[in-house]
Amino acid sequence: MPDSYFVTEVERQLAQRRRKWQPVRLVLIAALVAVVYLALTAVILFTRNDAPRYGEVIEHFKYGSIGSETESGIPYRVWQALPRLFPDAFERRDDYTAFGFLYEKDSLGRQRDLPIGVSRRTVRGVDMVWLNCAVCHTGTYRLSPDGARIIVPAMPSNNLQFERFVRFILSTAGDERMAPDTLLPEAEAAGHRFGLVEKTAWRYLVLPTLREGLIARHARLESLLARQPDWGPGRVDTFNPYKVVQMKIPASTLTVAEAIGAADFPAVFEQGPREGMHLHWDGNNTSLAERNLSAALGAGVTPETVDHAAIKRVADWLLTLKPPASPNRPDAGAVARGRSIYEDSCSSCHGEQDAAGYQFRGEAIGKVDPIERLGTDRARLDSYTPAFRQRQLTELFAGTPYAFRSFEKTDGYANLPLDGLWLRGPYLHNGAVPTLKDLLAPPAQRPSAYLRGSDVIDAVNGGFVSPPCDPKGPPPAAGFCFDTTQAGNGKDGHLYGTDLPASAKSDLLAYLLTF
Fold first, then answer.
1. What is the pLDDT, as a whole number, of residue 289?
2. Which of 89, 108, 334, 426 could bond 431 through an S-S bridge, CB–CB 3.0 to 4.6 Å?
3. What is the pTM of this model?
């Protein structure tokens, strides 16, 4: 402006100063806007907490969150990057099938990005994944080696190598491949781009937090797993891991008797008739709701993060979910003769099968048989201790409507219903006996070692095809060599039917094949 525009010299000088500082003011305003934008973006990104909702309950069972991701999960982008970072652990596959996880195809015929039993939840703005009920309770069968693989919700997860998976996840804690400079590019190569704010947050907050959590869990769990034989597929130690993780009990303080507790994943078909029965292998609870909540803790929820409504939705569905009918077609005459034997010797403890399906009737069904009478391996029984029970009752969900009240210490194992028996091999609580035929043999004649991991139905012997193996030989090309001489894997006990004549055993087996 010309000097004549200004009335006084003072006004002219002030205008000059304003012109001089105008660029600075504009820069400051722009910086303030940028800071506000970044702050709002960060708030939106890193405070959002929600989970996908599935309309069909079966989809909710397979993929819905129960709340495990918040404290136990890993970021979805890390989950997707791990096969690229650790190709040997994944057997050069780009998914988690090397650990026995099961995948379905989407409506377009493409493999889904997450396997059954792995759910997704946004936690503080980060997409996290971890486990739900289906990871332990969904399995497969095939009628022949080259037959179609059928996925069955609520059957035991006969494929899942859970210990191997957990050991792998823990092993990544101190690996240099988990450093931001390596992991972030691999995550982007897997198709997940990071914005500037996200990348900064991941480098300085998300990944360090993940690593710290994995290191802490590794320190607690690895010392426990080092004391145990390998679990093998289809098995889990139910209570010891959450002694050392949730309750922070040092693994070194566990007694020799309680430190080994691996057992087979159970089936969870038709739970309604089981209300009031002794649940879990050792029958330590008669409440379905408490059993379900306890199992959710094992999947990674905490009393603070558990999604009670999500668990109840699954539980309500399982009340009436029946197993698929057995495809076995044994001789009708043998079945009739076997049913007579079964009704005389077995039905009071295990119910029975008729033309209408499985019947939950029997005066001792769902009750606990003393270990002295059963004679089966007692490791799973001993892993649940009175001291642990007391801490369950006083610490977990204490002061809430969900507080545990029904847990008890028993002296044996429960007489379980046998619905869906054809899908529940191998047998006994610890899976020490591969087939129903072997279960009717005296313990000395039962296999000392056999291959676990096949999902091919054994229509002759009951259960799954389980050839013998040598635990001292080289690792098998497929399957897991289960050694019954290892602690907790004993094949003794349950002598019922073992003294029958061969013809009677054959008839009884024919009837059992129809369950």
1. 98
2. 426
3. 0.90
